[in-house]
Amino acid sequence: MAETPSLPFLPYGRQVIEDDDIAAVTEALRADYLTTGPRVAQFETAFAETVGARHAVACSNGTAALHLALMALDVGPDDVAIVPAITFAATANAARYQGAEVVFADVDPDTGLMTRQTLEAAMDRLQGRRLAAVLPVHLGGGIVDLPAVRRLADEAGAAVVEDACHALGTTMAFDNRPERAGDGRHSAMACFSFHPVKTLTTGEGGMITTNDEGLAGRMALLRSHGITREPGDFELRSMAFDPADGGANPWFYEMQNLGFNYRLPDLNCALGLSQLAKLDRFIATRRALTARYRTLLAPLTPLVRAVEPRPGSDPALHLFIVLIDFEAAGLTRKAAMDGLKARGIGTQVHYIPVPCQPYYRARYGEADLPGADGYYARCLSLPLFAGMELGDVERVVGALAEVLG
Ligand SMILES: *Cc1c(COP(=O)(O)O)cnc(C)c1O
Q1: Could you tell me if the CB of 107 is within 6 A of ligand 1?
Q2: pTM of the prediction?
Q3: Is 334 a catalytic residue?
Q4: What is the CATH number of domain 280-404?
Q5: Fold of 19-278
Q6: Which of 39, 119, 192, 358 could bridge to 207 as Cys pair (CB 3.0-4.6 Å)?
Q7: Which helix (H) or strand (E) holds 229?
C-alpha cells in the first residue's frame, strides 16, 4: 500500500515571496546604492499613499519605528508612556530606550485591546508624573477605539503613537466612517513592521506614518545618526561654507542631535515595493481565510471563540486569534499545541503579558491586570498567512476539533 504523503507543516505565519520579488531584489543588488538609494523614498511614498498618510519614514524594523516615534516626541526620563499589557515587548521597550517609565494598561479580556476604561484606569496610576505618550496596539488587526484614546490623551497633553504592526491594510470605522489604519487622523504617528510573519515583508523593516511634516523630518534625521547635510540647516557657518565663494563645503555635515543607524537599505525597500504591489491580494486572501475560519469554528462555540471585529470595520487580520476555554476542554494549552503540532499545525501565543516579564516585574512589581490575565489564559493564534488555501483552514479546524475532543 502506498504511503499517504504527509501534508506540509503549517506555521502560524510566514512570508509569501514570489519570483518577481526575487527579481526586484536582484535588480537592486546590481544598482549603485545598496543602502540609501532611490528605492527608499519610492517605498516611503508608495506606503504613505497606501495607508492615506502624508508622510512615511522607513527604518530598520518595527521596534526602531516605535523608538524613533518616541524620540521625535522628545519623550524622556521624567515621562511616562502608557502601553497595553498585551503586546510584543518592543512597544514598552521603546519607552524605556528613552528612559521613560511604562505604566501598563489592562485590556478587554475578550479582545486583548486597550479600551477607554482601561486607559482611564492606567491614567489614575500616574502618581503625578507627566504622561508623554499613549501607545495603543491594534492586536491581531483588531482595532482600538482611537477617538476615545485620543480624547483622553489630549486632555492629559500626551501624544498618541499607534503600534499598527498588526494593522496594515485594515479598514477602521469610527462613527461609521471608514478609514485606513495608519492614516494619522487619530494619532501623531503609526508604526509598522515588515518582519516576515507580518502582512508584508522586507526581511527586517519598519515604517512610521504621520501627517506632521516636522515629526517626519525629525525621524528622518534621527534614523541616520542625527546628521544633516542640508546647507540651509547648518549652524557652524564658518566651518560649513567656503570663505572664497561662499558655497557649502562638499565634505561638510552636522550632527545636531544624537541619532542612531536605523536606516532601511535600498535592497529591503526593493522587496517592500514589490510586496506592496501585492498588498490588496494578500489582504483579500487573509479576509477569505478569516471568513472561512469563522464559519467552520462556529460549531465549536462556546469552547472556542474567535475575537469579533469592531462593528463596521474590515480588519486585515495579521493573526487569527481564538479564545479557548482550556479548563472546560479538560486539557492544558501545551497539550493542545502539542496535539496540533503532531497534526502538522503550528500555533503561537500572542502575547505573554509584558508586565510579567522579569525585567518589568523587577522594575514595577507585580501587576494587577485581570483583563490581561483572562485574555492570556485563553488565547491561541491559529495559522494565517497569504500563502494558505481555504482547504488549510479546514485542516486546522478539523485538527482543533479532534484535539479538543
Ligand atoms: C512585530 C511587532 C513589533 C516589532 O517589530 P519588529 O519589526 O520585529 O522590530 C512591535 N509591536 C508589535 C505589536 C509587533 O507585532
Answers
A1: no
A2: 0.96
A3: no
A4: 3.90.1150.10
A5: Aspartate Aminotransferase; domain 2 (3.40.640)
A6: 192
A7: none
